Amino acid sequence: MSSDLWQRCCERLAAEMPEQQFNTWIRPLPPGTVTTAEAGPVVSVRVPNRFKLDWIRNQYAPRIESLLADLAGCPVKLELSLAPREAPPVNHRPVLATAGAGPVPAAQAYNGAAPARAAAAVAAPAAPAASNPASRSRLNPSLTFDTLVPGRANQMARTAALHVAGAPGQMYNPLFIYGGVGLGKTHLIHAVGNALLADRPDARVLYLHAEQFISDVVKNYQRKTFDELKAKYHSLDLLLIDDVQFFAGKDRTQEEFFNAFEALLAKRAHIIMTSDTYPKGLADIDERLTSRFDSGLTVAIEPPELEMRVAILIKKAEAEGAVMPEDVAFFVAKNVRANVRELEGALRKILAYSRFSHKEINIQLAREALKDLLSIQNRQISVENIQKTVADFYKIKVADMYSKKRPASIARPRQIAMYLAKELTQKSLPEIGELFGGRDHTTVLHAVRKIGSERTKNTELNQQLHVLEQTLKG
Ligand SMILES: Nc1ncnc2c1ncn2[C@@H]1O[C@H](COP(=O)(O)OP(=O)(O)OP(=O)(O)O)[C@@H](O)[C@H]1O
């Protein structure tokens, strides 16, 4: 088998892939080695880190195998594996060296430390907290792509985030991720930062909540040290900023953020932002900023669907060293739908209950552990409540829920209310029909199916349903 098989395969890939993608994912790989197994030739390629491995496996492996087979004239197996990690050097580089040629010492540039502290950090480069890029970046090391369960709800956002982690400063800049509370926005942006640092430990990455940026602006405003602020933010390679809706009404903050934004984009540093709404929906933020927020890629994270909630529960239980049987995970996921943070809360209760009572995890135990939560839900959600909430939301009269009127502006909210009644209450289809002005159960069934199926394709409808569900659950 020709030893330049990999080389030729790369040439073919280079010809057919967009240049940027080839340069990001394929070109940096070490040459594949060819061996012959009983079943045929095997090309083994070592990939430098886990997220690149997953990405290449999912996106490119089938095509690579087919090109290899084409070139070799027989089926070829592609074996992708993780390259062993190189041992880190015993002495970390002096902090100043990792800062590049920026005007401010690295320790200061990363964490806003007072000059005295920054100087101490430089004087003692071996101190792990001071010389560790991860801690300076304020990233939580446990929030990675590995611990983020993928699903339809976060597919677009996760794909875009993986791209950015692989090639920051190129496509999707800025990346704007929005969605409701507790859906994994913060997790995802930490994952990008952690992945980039795993790949390039000297990259200047900073995660911060919008409120921390606001407080930095205030501090520097009081001290009249705007140059420091600029030096801190303008020298980054990747800025991850959470919940930018908090900038609302803060003019000076917005101005400073605008400056940082422009400076970072000009030097092809990457910016990722999160928010509870899409850029145009942000209130009290200068249009000059919101239009820039929207100038790269804007993606939503949606509430996770049932199967994803089940997968999250099982994975999180596993991480806690516990086993959550699938039927229990389904029971919990069906009852806790609002967001992942609530799912985590439910899981914690179940695990604690099981440990204290020395009982194994089953549906009975989960029911007991979540007694309060389930009774609150059952108490609050009635069909009447749903009708009123939906009518208020779509600005129609509650009476229209029972009326025979058919214009779409009324019929659609009514169908949405029927769907929610089926989802959130224990009522049967005929009972729901009765409560909607004596309608037939087939009318309810039609509404439930229609809205349920549209929800999976229509982002706006899905967001609206999510808001309604959150409101109804209090
Ligand atoms: N897909 C997922 N897989 C695993 N864990 C997840 C996932 N999505 C969210 N989580 C977890 O749920 C919790 C809440 O997520 P996170 O804080 O990222 O939400 P958020 O969208 O930033 O919310 P907020 O707007 O309230 O800040 C975190 O513990 C996070 O790890």
TrEMBL record:
A Pfam family of this chain: Bac_DnaA
Binding residue positions for ATP: 182, 184-186
Domain of life: Bacteria
Residue ranges, annotated region (Domain I, interacts with DnaA modulators): 1-113
GO molecular function, one term: ATP binding
Cellular location(s): Cytoplasm
Domain AAA+ ATPase per the UniProt entry, residue ranges: 171-305
Main location: cytoplasm
Alphabetized InterPro entries for the sequence: AAA+_ATPase, Chromosome_initiator_DnaA, Chromosome_initiator_DnaA-like, Chromosome_initiator_DnaA_CS, DnaA_C, DnaA_dom, DnaA_N_dom, DnaA_N_sf
UniProt-annotated stretches for the region Domain IV, binds dsDNA: 355-474
Keywords: ATP-binding, Cytoplasm, DNA replication, DNA-binding, Lipid-binding, Nucleotide-binding
Domain Chromosomal replication initiator DnaA C-terminal: residue ranges: 382-451
Coiled coil residues, start to end: none
Gene3D superfamilies xref list: 1.10.1750.10, 1.10.8.60, 3.30.300.180, P-loop containing nucleotide triphosphate hydrolases (3.40.50.300)
Region (Domain III, AAA+ region): 138-354
GO biological process: DNA replication initiation; regulation of DNA replication
Cellular component, GO, one term: plasma membrane
PROSITE patterns: DNAA
Known role: Plays an essential role in the initiation and regulation of chromosomal replication. ATP-DnaA binds to the origin of replication (oriC) to initiate formation of the DNA replication initiation complex once per cell cycle. Binds the DnaA box (a 9 base pair repeat at the origin) and separates the double-stranded (ds)DNA. Forms a right-handed helical filament on oriC DNA; dsDNA binds to the exterior of the filament while single-stranded (ss)DNA is stabiized in the filament's interior.
NCBIfam families with a match to the protein in the record: DnaA
UniProt domain comment: Domain I is involved in oligomerization and binding regulators, domain II is flexibile and of varying length in different bacteria, domain III forms the AAA+ region, while domain IV binds dsDNA.
Family note: Belongs to the DnaA family.
Assembly information from the UniProt record: Oligomerizes as a right-handed, spiral filament on DNA at oriC.
Name of protein: Chromosomal replication initiator protein DnaA
Classification lineage: Bacteria, Pseudomonadati, Pseudomonadota, Betaproteobacteria, Burkholderiales
